[in-house]
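Could you show me some protein's one-letter sequence and the numbers that encode its backbone in two labelled lines?

___
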Amino acid sequence: MLLSLSVLAADPDPYVEALQEKRFLKLSNGNEVLISYHSHSEETLSKIRIFMRRSGKILWDKTFVNEYDELWYKANFIPVVKDQFLEDLNDDGSTEIAISNWNGGKAPCASSAIIFTVKEDSLQFLKKQQINTEFSRHVYPMKQEFKNSKYKDPLCRN
């Protein structure tokens, strides 16, 4: 297993590299969710702004610095389940999205996906799930894993 990870480390996954730049998500109701950066200067604390808009009008807007016990340094959308950026994980009628958050540290498995429930005009925090920001292609391989309280990203197992 260690050998395969070092091969991956030497040869980055182009799909994951493209995901790391995904900062725009169009929702099925026409709303858009965007991620923007306020600052990345070493002298100032980084801030990540996530907002929802429709037809140019801001519906919801929040700036993240240390929310959910995370230092927000770099964020991007990641499929919540394999190949799906939008999925109703808890069968409540509302879809969920996931944002991969890398805190700037050296341990990729110390990173998290923050899962939000999409409401008509806002995002609501649902759950935090550990992922490997360098290699994870999604948060969960299938929807059923969301309900598994012992689920761990296979790329983060010891």
